[in-house]
Specification:
Blueprint (H helix, E strand, L loop, with lengths): L1 E4 L5 H21 L4 H16 L1 E10 L2 E8 L9 H16 L5 E8 L12 H8 L8 E8 L19 E5 L7 E8 L3 E3 L3 E11 L7 E7 L2 E8 L4 E7 L4 E9 L12 E9 L3 E7 L6 H9 L4 E7 L22 H7 L6 E5 L9 H12 L3 E5 L23 E10 L2 E2 L1 H5 L19 E7 L5 E5 L5 E8 L2 E6 L5 H4 L8 H12 L9 E7 L2 E7 L8 E4 L5 E4 L2 E4 L2 E7 L4 E7 L2 E7 L18 H7 L3 E3 L11 E6 L9 E6 L3 E10 L3 H20 L1
Parallel strand pairs: 3-4, 3-5, 5-6, 6-33, 8-14, 15-16, 15-17, 17-18, 18-24, 34-35
Antiparallel strand pairs: 1-2, 2-36, 7-9, 9-12, 10-11, 10-13, 13-14, 19-21, 20-22, 22-23, 23-24, 25-26, 26-30, 27-28, 27-31, 29-30, 31-32
Length: about 700
């Protein structure tokens, strides 16, 4: 309650009037005039009425005390009945706090974090966000319901922004044990075909049974090694990078009896395979218009080391010129096709014919090169249908088609076959979707018998134009026309010769993205995108196995010919396995080194320092298989100075909110008039006697 003044006259005038009144009153009292004291009181009351004193009284309402209950909803809470303990504890705690009308409970649910983050338990960050609108003086305490594996606990010397107890209610069981495996260090990149080295470690948390651990190592789903290691010891491991692009190394350790979870018994490392420059040998049988198209394409690719020979002077050409006067380079046949043939990733015979340049035995070397994993491309012209065709050499054992000896001399638009519309080498070629195709014509092809493998492009009358085939570990492609250069020169608008040639070459060199039967998956945040390539028709459903072992059937939808896809929203983090027919693939959702999947046993050690500093407590919700037992609530007025081991101390706030202000003018209205009349009447009465 306060008194303030709201004068009816400006203060200078009121002060002058009061000064005159005081002088008159003092003079009357000094002279002993009858009724001087009453006259002084009347003048004072008159001045006070002009000053207009006002009495103010505030109406205030006490504010509630905010108690934050931070609930751990991370994936580690799915272990060993922890989620049930959490739900029970939350329900009981809300009921107990509701018994105190002055306490307002604010529940903060904290999950694994955003999709783009590494999965982790960030309870203090969730608490700070939820209490951003709460003044520090109103916070009575923070109660964490968690397994104790919190990954954003502030340093004990930092400030939290409030002064209230922090309590921890720990889910899980005492004396838990868990075995996990982790990658200590590993390269991010590796050159295809070369060895890389990494280090891993098996860790036993809690009172584990001890003994050696068996670790199974898989690379891209294929088991490559088994190691027996001692827990706690760094183990080096070497492997060879098998392919370009993503390579997934999976380390799986055998479980121990009674461990909390087996989710962290697997560790994953993703390594990007990088190809060194591809070595391509291009042999042109003679100078021709299409030779430069192949050379320009291969030379424009910085990842290709090209070795190109053109046969300008075959052995049968005898014009009497002495050898020492020729400026031509001798064709190093033995060096290329015997000594160093295995060093090439791709061999291209461009309009090449058997004219005695290569000994007949060398063709057998080339066939063995293909059988052992090499790649061979035949770009055929009229010579392939003649008597000197390489199809009449031992190379015929790996060729997918034999020439009939006839050339088809007829203008045609190259078209995709039904298989070609689905095959990744030719699917979606620019201009292929229209009829006739949106590219120029060709005018001749080599006629062949019924080919092996896949005929992905056709010439006139459905004749084979581009044939792809697998032979042993290697691959062979035959382009049965030498007129691809018409597209390169822009004849009748040209055509997609660069895409066609490049895709064919990369398919031959076993590029994973161009496999006709392939199953791939990638993670986009928490969404899995599954892709199935096939030329065999509808592949049916895919089976998705989550890190927890749960399986579900996923329907695949055809997006393009031969390309089926599905998108699946996941609620788990870790390594997923996708299977369809006999194909399997692995994909990791979330960061492969996520904190959420490291230590898994429940603990109060991380919260204990903050509980001690703020006079809170940390205790388990249950012992062994016992029921959930919550400590009681202890409201405390003022600062909490002593921790109570058996109760959750909460600092009650003294904060209030102003609801309104009542004002009363003391000399206004009838009250002021009555006071003045009383004093004036008393003065007249005294003077009249």
């Amino acid at each position: 309650m306060t008194i303030d003044f709201s004068p009816l006259l400006p203060w200078p005038y009121l002060a002058a009037l009061a000064l005159v009144a005081a002088a008159l009153a003092a003079f009357g009292i000094w002279r002993g005039v009858r009724g001087a004291w009453l006259r002084a009181a009347a003048l004072a009351a008159f001045c006070l009425a002009l000053a207009n004193p006002v009495l103010f009284q505030e109406e205030r309402e006490p504010l509630s005390t905010i108690v934050a209950v931070v609930v751990d909803r991370s994936q580690s809470q799915d272990n060993d009945g922890r989620r049930e303990q959490t739900d029970k504890a939350l329900s009981d705690l809300k009921e107990r706090l509701a018994r105190f009308p002055q306490i307002e409970t604010r529940v903060v649910e904290a999950a694994d974090g955003e999709e783009t983050e590494a999965p982790s338990t960030k309870l203090f960050g969730a608490l700070a966000t939820a209490l951003a609108d709460v003044p520090p003086a109103r916070l009575g305490g923070a109660i964490f319901i968690t397994d104790g594996q919190i990954h954003d606990v502030p340093d004990i010397n930092q400030k939290l922004g409030f002064d209230a107890p922090i309590h921890g209610l720990i889910t899980g069981k005492p004396d838990e044990v868990d075995r996990r495996i982790e990658i200590v260090n590993a390269p991010r990149f590796g050159i295809v075909g070369e060895q890389q080295r990494l280090t891993f470690r098996v860790v036993d948390d809690g009172a584990a049974e001890g003994g050696s651990a068996e670790v199974t190592i898989r690379l891209n789903g294929n088991e490559i090694a088994t190691e027996h290691v001692e827990p706690g010891t760094d183990v080096p491991f070497s492997f060879t990078v098998p392919r370009g692009g993503n390579n997934i190394l999976e380390f799986a350790v055998n479980p121990i009896r009674g461990e909390v979870t087996e989710v962290n018994n697997r560790a994953v490392h993703v390594l990007d395979g990088i190809r060194e420059n591809l070595r391509v040998l291009l042999v042109s049988g003679e100078p021709h218009a299409g030779e430069r198209a192949w050379r320009n394409l291969l030379k424009s690719d910085a990842a290709v080391d090209l070795v190109h020979f053109t046969i300008l002077r075959p052995p049968e050409k005898q014009d009497g010129t002495p050898i020492n006067e020729l400026s031509l380079i001798a064709f190093p046949t033995r060096e290329l096709f015997v000594d160093k043939i295995s060093e090439f990733d791709l061999i291209i015979f461009d309009r090449y014919q058997h004219r005695g340049v290569l000994p007949i035995l060398y063709y057998d070397n080339i066939a063995q090169y293909v059988q052992n994993g090499g790649a061979l491309l035949i770009a055929a012209g009229p010579e392939h249908a003649g008597d000197d065709s390489i199809a009449a050499t031992p190379l015929s054992t790996v060729l997918p088609a034999n020439p009939t000896g006839v050339m088809n001399e007829k203008a045609f638009f190259p078209r995709l076959s039904e298989e070609g519309k689905k095959h990744p080498v030719t699917r979606g070629l620019e201009g292929a979707s229209s009829e006739p195709p949106g590219w120029g014509r060709w005018f001749r092809t080599v006629d062949v018998d019924r080919p092996l493998g896949q005929t992905v492009m056709e010439a006139a009358d459905g004749k084979p134009l581009l044939v792809l085939n697998r032979v042993g570990k290697g691959r062979v492609a035959m382009l049965l026309s030498d007129q691809g250069w018409l597209w390169a020169r822009g004849f009748e608008g040209g055509g997609p010769h660069i895409s066609l040639y490049r895709r064919t070459a990369h398919w031959l060199m076993q590029e994973p993205a161009l496999e006709e039967e392939a199953l791939t998956a990638r993670a986009l945040g928490r969404t899995l995108e599954i892709t199935r390539q096939t030329i065999e028709g509808d592949p049916g459903q895919a089976t998705l196995t989550s890190p927890s072992g749960r399986t579900q059937e996923i329907g695949l939808t055809e997006r393009e010919p031969g390309l089926y896809k599905a998108e699946v929203k996941t609620d788990e983090i870790g390594l997923f396995e996708v299977a369809n027919d006999e194909l399997t693939t692995l994909v990791h959702v979330g960061n492969v080194d996520a904190p959420e999947f490291k230590a898994a046993i429940s603990t109060g050690e991380k919260l204990q320092p903050w509980a001690e500093k703020t006079k809170g407590i940390v205790r388990r919700l249950a012992d062994a298989d016992g029921p959930v037992d919550l400590p009681s609530i202890l409201p405390v007025r003022g600062a909490v100075r002593v921790a109570d081991d058996q109760r959750l101390s909460l600092r009650m706030t003294d904060e209030t909110v102003l609801k309104g202000v009542n004002s009363l003018s003391l000399f206004a209205g009838l009250f002021g008039l009555a006071a003045l009349l009383l004093l004036i009447s008393a003065m007249w009465y005294r003077e009249g006697r």
